[in-house]
């Protein structure tokens, strides 16, 4: 799987609130950082983190790969959604993604900033 296919499946899973589809993109031994100081250990911890998408509505995720080195990618992303209280939220940041030979993500690092909608 190439990075564009991976990102498209990631986007579809997120916007469709399908946590299992998102998790299927990660290897069982993935190194996953939700923030630079918050490492999630294993797919079960990642799934617990991803449950938050169930409270997101009108999800709009866009992305662009801006750097590639072998199987490592830097991706600029932008996310807008409304929460359960109908507040409009906007986040932007960078994903650092490494794909293994099977096209699964075995390293994921997430950096973001909250902005004004």
Q: Could you outline the blueprint of secondary structure elements for this entry?
A:
Blueprint lengths: L2 H13 L3 H5 L2 E10 L2 E4 H9 L6 E13 L2 E11 L5 E12 L5 E11 L2
Parallel strand pairs: 1-6
Antiparallel strand pairs: 1-2, 3-4, 4-5, 5-6
Protein name: SnoaL-like domain-containing protein
Pfam family, one: SnoaL_2
InterPro entries: NTF2-like_dom_sf, SnoaL-like
* Integer average pLDDT: 95
How would a textbook summarize the main sheet?
6 strands, mixed
The percent range for strand residues is over 45%
Q: Which structural class is indicated by helix and strand composition?
A: alpha+beta
The number of helical runs is 3
Task: Name the poorly predicted regions.
Answer: none
Quickly name the level 1 CATH class: Alpha Beta
Helix-strand pattern: HHEEHEEEE
Helix content: 10-25%
The domain tally reads 1
First-to-last CA distance: 33 Å
Radius of gyration: 14 Å
Organism: Candidatus Nomurabacteria bacterium GW2011_GWC2_35_8
Protein name: SnoaL-like domain-containing protein
Pfam families: SnoaL_2
Domain SnoaL-like: 13-99
Which key terms come to mind for this protein?
SnoaL-like, SnoaL-like domain-containing protein, 117 residues, globular, six-stranded mixed beta sheet, Nuclear Transport Factor 2, Chain: A, 3 helices, alpha+beta
